[in-house]
Design a protein that fits this description.
This protein is of the alpha/beta class. It contains 13 helices and five strands. Helix 10 packs across helix 11. Strand 1, helix 1 and strand 2 form a beta-alpha-beta unit.
Length: about 300
């Protein structure tokens, strides 16, 4: 499959360099470009339906973050990469919170651009793989339909798809340095469960109690714990997420532009709490900590990071 790109940057030279890299490396083709953020930029992009948008942060008209927010509000399905020479940590964090996948510093480096784009395309390939698997299951179900069709909640994930999802979750948890935590197994089962329910929002919604989610996962996947106290799962998950925050904060303190920190910090954690943890580490304070973890945000981010 040949992927399509849309480039927005007020620097003509930068647009030309990016287009040349994309074409020379066989990454895809540029189907459109804009020189600033004036006018209905989001509408123009959505009309072209590119797979990947490369967008500058600071431009005349609307800035890159505002455009990203408009695209996400319109449910634009493509991936977005921010490009800028801005080094202000708060603005970088805001860009990730708005919905970008990666951040590339200016002046652009050919090797970095190729590496980032390849990682974005790998994510797109994985999503296509998930979609094909689900289409295949739906087609088989239709062809073999004898009597009433099973409900969506009764359809198990295909073994191959379940394996891919599990490996993807473990990869992310390994990036955060918590794959050895007992709670990492619970988090894998939680994402597998959410991948198999017909209405994910029912479990990720603002008013859904995590205890109910843990109980559902316990009954479906954790055979040995069906009659144990669900608080054990809750404690393991909380401990794993807390250690993940500690590790990500330590990475950001050492190097704010560490790719793992950039990728996960704003999506998985409340950035104000994460900054508080970074300050505590900087001052040599390990415990007790005032920084709090938001378990629901972490699970929500983990699910969408794996699935979308």
């Amino acid at each position: 499959m040949r992927y399509t790109f849309f480039v927005i940057d007020d620097d003509l030279a930068c647009r030309r360099i990016l287009a040349q890299i994309i074409e020379d490396e066989g990454l895809g083709e540029v189907v459109g470009e804009l020189s600033d953020g004036s006018g209905d930029v989001a509408g123009t992009i959505i009309g072209r339906q590119p797979d990947v948008v490369l967008i500058d942060l600071l431009m005349p008209g609307k800035d890159g973050i505002e455009i990203v927010e408009q695209l996400r509000a319109s449910h634009f399905p493509g991936k977005i990469v921010m490009i800028s020479q801005v080094e202000k940590k708060e603005m970088v964090a805001q860009a990730y919170a708005a919905g970008i996948e990666f951040y590339i510093n200016k002046p652009v480096n050919r090797i970095e651009v190729i590496s980032v784009i390849k990682r974005v395309l790998e994510r797109l390939e994985m999503e296509l793989s998930f979609a094909r698997m689900r289409d295949s299951i739906a087609a088989l179900d239709y062809l073999n339909n004898v009597g009433p069709a099973p409900s969506a909640s009764a359809l198990p994930l295909p073994e191959q798809e379940e394996k891919i999802i599990g490996e993807r979750v473990r990869e992310i948890l390994a990036d955060m340095g918590v794959i050895g935590e007992p709670g990492s197994h619970d988090l894998v089962q939680i994402i597998l469960f959410l991948s198999n329910v017909p209405d994910v929002d029912k479990y990720l919604g603002e008013y859904r109690h995590l205890k109910e989610l843990y109980q559902a996962v316990q009954q479906k996947y954790l055979e040995a714990e069906k009659h144990s106290d669900v608080r054990a799962i809750e404690q393991r998950v909380r401990r794993a997420v807390k250690h993940a925050m500690d590790n990500i904060a330590a990475l950001g303190l050492d190097d704010f532009y560490n790719p793992v920190f950039e990728r996960y910090s704003a999506k998985f954690f409340d950035f104000n709490e994460l900054r508080l943890k970074m300050k505590e580490l900087e001052q040599g304070q390990v415990t007790p900590t005032r920084a709090r973890v938001n378990i629901k945000q972490f699970i929500n981010a983990l699910y969408w990071e794996v699935i979308r």
